[in-house]
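PROTEIN DESIGN WORKSHEET
SECTION A - STRUCTURE
LENGTH: 430
TOKENS:
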């Protein structure tokens, strides 16, 4: 489905480029023929090779965990490190003979054996197998291989291991956040950009989200900040990423688009949570460092918004809407204490208005994702309000009947509107 849509869009673009004299008809035919080739057949050996390497890595770790006490300790170590060296050395002739996928698989096998060697040493010398130091060593080895060779599978392994490292570290010391993760995260994100590998960049963004989810309790306890304050901070952080993606969209459009998509989702999901019934906060516990902590993202958001507006990266109305999200997020904290009954209604209305604005924003910036997500957010909020407000006011049968009618009619209307706006955005892009 995605391939057909891409080819249809490419064909219309080529016709326009031929008309403008940018591409000759012969070149356009070759471009279209190249795009019609199925990438799955070319990539299948590489995919199978990497999957085979992953299975071998799991086999080694399972073998180590099987308590093979009858083999001498020295023989175990020699077997692991000889196999690891053989895998890495095999990558050299595979790469020279034009088999890069199999060379990458050999590198991944070597890294898997390296992890198995760490587990074996931990088993021999009775070290905890979930010790953060061992996982960190494995992670550093994977990132070093990704940088030196370079190797995208090694980078993916390094990013995944960084998440496991922070999980083990938090479990070992539940009292403080795992700040050292950021050093490894920056290295992984920089490598993803250096290798121009979009999936690696996605992994970096996902690992960032996972770190915050894992460390939220530790951050709250360390700085005596209520979870409500952390939610506001996360909205400001997402807005900063959003604006930074807009600012650098011309230099790295693919990476900026990915970062913008994650920022949009994070902003709207957390902003939606603000409309839930507040439980009240404790200013004496939360306000001590809050003003200093929140000042940094506020300055960053303000500076990025100013740069985007002055450099013409975004229209004033859209920039104002993004800044208004930050303003209403900050206002939520005093409103929570002054007028908690007002919050569900006010922020529900704000969420609907922002979801409708996001559709307009996506249309103006030729962003299919923003258009589609705006409709999803608007529809989800309408459903939430329907179930939250009318469920206690209507008879059960009438409630479900009316809900079914509204769902069908609303879905048809929103789908027609969505297709029209997506078509308009595609037309503007071409």
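SECTION B - SEQUENCE
RESIDUE ASSIGNMENT:
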């Amino acid at each position: 489905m995605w391939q057909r849509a891409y080819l249809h869009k490419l064909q219309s673009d080529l016709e326009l480029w031929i008309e403008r004299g940018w591409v000759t008809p012969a070149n356009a035919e070759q471009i279209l023929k190249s795009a019609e080739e199925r990438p799955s057949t070319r990539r299948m050996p590489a995919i199978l090779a990497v999957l085979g390497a992953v299975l071998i890595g799991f086999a080694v770790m399972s073998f180590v965990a099987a308590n093979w006490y009858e083999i001498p300790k020295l023989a175990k170590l020699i077997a692991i490190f000889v196999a690891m060296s053989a895998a890495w050395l095999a990558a050299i002739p595979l790469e020279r003979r034009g088999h890069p996928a199999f060379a990458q698989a050999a590198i991944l096998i070597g890294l898997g054996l390296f992890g198995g060697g760490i587990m074996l040493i931990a088993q021999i010398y009775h070290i905890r197998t979930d010790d953060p130091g061992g996982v960190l060593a494995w992670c550093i080895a994977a990132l070093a291989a990704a940088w030196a060779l370079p190797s995208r599978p090694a980078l993916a392994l390094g990013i995944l291991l960084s998440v496991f490292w922070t999980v083990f570290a938090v479990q070992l010391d539940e009292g403080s956040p795992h700040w050292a993760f950021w050093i490894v995260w920056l290295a992984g994100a920089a490598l993803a950009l250096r290798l121009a590998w979009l999936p690696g960049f996605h992994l970096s963004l996902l690992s960032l989200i996972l770190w915050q989810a894992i460390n939220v309790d530790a951050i709250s306890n360390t700085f005596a900040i209520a979870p409500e304050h952390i939610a506001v901070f996360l909205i400001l952080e997402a807005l900063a990423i959003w604006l930074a993606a807009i600012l650098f969209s011309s230099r790295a459009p693919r990476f900026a688009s990915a970062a913008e998509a994650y920022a949009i989702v994070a902003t709207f999901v957390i902003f939606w949570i603000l409309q839930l019934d507040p439980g009240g906060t404790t200013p004496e516990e939360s306000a001590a460092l809050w003003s200093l902590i929140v000042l940094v993202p506020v300055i960053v958001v303000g500076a990025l918004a100013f740069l985007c507006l002055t450099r013409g990266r975004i229209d004033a109305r859209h920039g104002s809407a993004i800044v208004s999200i930050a303003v209403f997020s900050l206002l939520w904290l005093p409103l929570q204490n002054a007028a908690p009954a007002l919050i569900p209604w006010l922020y529900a209305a704000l969420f609907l208005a922002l979801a409708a604005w996001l559709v307009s924003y996506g249309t103006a910036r030729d962003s299919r994702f923003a258009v589609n997500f705006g409709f999803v957010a608007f529809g989800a909020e309408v459903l939430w309000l329907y179930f939250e407000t009318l469920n206690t006011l209507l008879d059960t049968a009438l409630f479900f009947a009316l809900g079914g009618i509204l769902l069908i009619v609303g879905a048809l209307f929103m789908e027609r509107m969505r297709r029209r706006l997506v078509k308009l955005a595609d037309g503007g892009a071409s």
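SECTION C - NOTES
The CA atoms of residues 366 and 401 lie 38 Å apart.
The radius of gyration is 26 Å.
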